[in-house]
Design goal:
Blueprint: H1 2-24, H2 29-52, H3 59-75, H4 94-97, H5 99-120, H6 128-139, H7 142-149
Helix pairs in contact: 1-2, 1-3, 2-3, 2-6, 3-5, 3-6, 5-6, 5-7
Length: about 150
């Protein structure tokens, strides 16, 4: 039961992060990027926990994790306007220095996220194996983006 409660708390955190991000998008792209990445982190934690068996799998939680990753993949790249490369951000200069490569990296995330979202359908993956097949490739894209386009503090 504790694992299910953790999964539900993770889903609530994702919803709150996206809700807060949308309100600040026009005013502060850096804060919006941070909110989106917080939701991605929560989805990765929830989904990764289910993949490892640390959190009980449920179709609803699986669908929430996938939907969060998909939503991020569709919106995240929109919040890097000129001038948003300074301030309290961990976005690497390579984003603005190499926009074509940056867009290719975003597509590496968007493609499996979209495939997972479509595979999840209306009800979500019906079992853990289906979730693994859909969500695993999405998680596999995170490392290269973080290594090449994020400044570690």
């Amino acid at each position: 039961m504790r694992k299910l409660a953790l999964a539900l708390a993770g889903g609530a955190a994702m919803a709150a992060a996206f809700g807060g991000g949308a309100a600040t998008a026009a005013d502060d792209p850096i804060q919006t990027r941070k909110a989106i990445m917080q939701s991605v982190g929560a989805a990765a934690g929830l989904g990764g926990g289910m993949l490892k068996g640390e959190i009980d799998y449920t179709p609803a939680a699986g669908k929430a994790a996938i939907a969060t990753m998909y939503a991020a993949s569709q919106s995240y790249g929109s919040f890097f306007p000129e001038g948003s490369n300074t301030g309290d951000t961990t976005a690497a200069p390579a984003i603005w220095d190499n926009p074509v490569e940056w867009q290719a990296e975003l597509e590496k995330f968007a493609s499996p996220a979209q495939a997972a979202f479509q595979a999840a359908g209306r009800e979500g993956p019906v079992d853990l194996d289906a979730f693994k097949a859909a969500f695993g490739p999405v998680l596999a894209t995170c490392k290269s983006c973080h290594e090449g386009y994020r400044v570690k503090r």
